[in-house]
Amino acid sequence: xxxxxxxxxxxxxxxxxxxxxxxxIAVSLIQPVIWLLLFGALFKAVTDIPGFGSDNxxxxxxxxxxxxxxxxxxxxxxxxxxxxxxxxxxxRFLVSPVKRGSLISGRLASWALTTTIQSLIIVVxxxxxGATFSNSVLGVVVLCVEAVLVGxxxxxxxxxxxLLIRKEETLIAAVQFLVLPLSFMSVTFMQKDLMPGWMxxxxxxxxxxxxxxxGRDAVTAGPDWGAIAGKTGLLVAFLGLCAWFATRAFRTxxxxx
Amino acid sequence: xxxxxxxxxxxxxxxxxxxxxxLDGLTFSVPxxxxxxxxxxxxxxxxxxxKILTTLAHPDGxxxxxxxxxxxxxxxxVRESIGVVSQAGxxxxxxxxxxxxxxxxxxxxxxxxxxxxxxxxxxxxxxxxDAGKRLVREYSGGMQRRLDVAQGLVHRPKxxxxxxxxxxxxxxxxxxxxxxxxxxxxxxxxxLLTTHYLxxxxxxxxxxxxxxxxxxxxxxxxxxxxxxxxxxxxxxELGTETAPEAAVRxxxxxxxxxxxxxxxxRVLHARAEDGARTVPAVxxxxxxxxxxxxxxxxxxxxxxxxxxRFAGRTFGEAESDEKPRRNDxxxxxxx
Lengths: 257, 335
Prior knowledge:
The structure holds two protein chains of two kinds.
Chain A: H1 2-19, H2 23-42, H3 57-75, H4 78-86, H5 89-94, H6 100-128, H7 136-165, H8 168-184, H9 197-204, H10 207-218, H11 225-256
Chain B: E1 5-16, E2 20-31, E3 35-39, H1 46-53, E4 61-66, E5 69-70, H2 75-81, E6 82-85, H3 97-107, H4 112-125, H5 141-153, E7 159-163, H6 171-186, E8 190-195, H7 198-204, E9 207-212, E10 215-220, H8 222-228, E11 232-238, H9 245-253, E12 258-264, E13 267-272, H10 275-288, E14 293-299, H11 303-311, H12 315-322, H13 324-334
Parallel strand pairs in B: 3-8, 3-9, 6-7, 7-8
Antiparallel strand pairs in B: 1-2, 1-4, 4-5, 9-10, 11-13, 11-14, 12-13
Helix pairs in contact in B: 3-4, 3-5
């Protein structure tokens, strides 16, 4: 299958670039460490709020940070695409027999791999600072899957936006506009029952929230696997939608050349 | 028509938005196994032509065949037959030279030892054998350009597109690049070269089409084009700021053997069967009309003259017309 072969070749390209800048993984871990250690310590007392339901905030926060880190990182997936456009790399591939989809899937595949590694590192850090993860390996695997799914979806969105706007500054603004509001309108930092009513409603439609809820449930004792499967299904559908958007953006880009 | 032409472009049209008419009925054909030059100033439509012929952009009208395949209905077949070296190059700077060539080969379905052998061969040919394992980011401009061309050749294309291959290179490096391109032509490859350097087209292209404002204004071999302009080119720069064109023309009407007079902004371009003998008469005529002369040049016909004849303006003017902003900056700098 040419599509698979091309995806593999593109994945190797991106992994090699990453391999040459291993410090990048360390840099991308600074933010989750800050969330985990500083934010976690600062808001330690929220567990005292009646109805919070958990007595260890780090425990509560850690799965959210895993998903959010993947989500934040994915927002920037479009940046190297703009660089590729500027350097003529995209055009060079478009005049070759390469399968168009592999230009997106190759990025996503290499990105999924690094996200998984990142997620596992955060899990280990969280364990060190006192969180516990139930449901052993399966729970952590499901957590990583949710992180990769929501990241892949927003990665497609970012790549699609990059192809449409083709300017780094504009992409940065667009990503900023999306990332923080979606993070706050989710259960990443706060128990759902304690959120304002309208936020609760919004969070039901927030893909990031689906991923955090499913991921957190998967590493909590007595998970509702049915609900997890449902949210995972929603995420897969959302990923499909975003992937469709990215391929459409590719066509629009080519028409503008 | 047909079998012997590697590229057939018929009445290509393309506009960007309502304002920019990039191609306005461009027609030309390239015989297989030759180097064909598309010569024109920046903005003449050369890159748009390359984008359309390489299936990157869609024409609004017209049709074209490349390597025997229709660019619209058989785009995938076209892509398999061509190598493209765009102006931007398209190299991954964070990868090594070898990795760039490898990926290019892989997307064309090559692999294994055959591909590695081909890469060795190309690195050798383009004097990059020692640099193959280094990141492209560390390459000099000339090395990057050579790798660009090597990258376009990995899969042994039938037709190679070189879009402004020497723009931005030092004169020395440019001369080296010309040698490389001349060598490719010897190997039976069809090369479509776009350039805004008259000298480059003169040196490399067996046939060329002069493009202006999205149209072919003249076509032929560089020598034939120059031969068409019988006689010498005379350029006269007038000393007075405001020389009335009518007065100048009237003065020159009395000079025998002077042809094709074009007057733009203090500079007169004309042709004469025998330049050396005509110049004194021209000077006398101008002097008689009280028109001061600042400088006179007589030259054998060049491609610049060919361009002037067919496009009605000098090449340099056309270039600055198409780049008004840069022109302003230059004026700014002069002040």
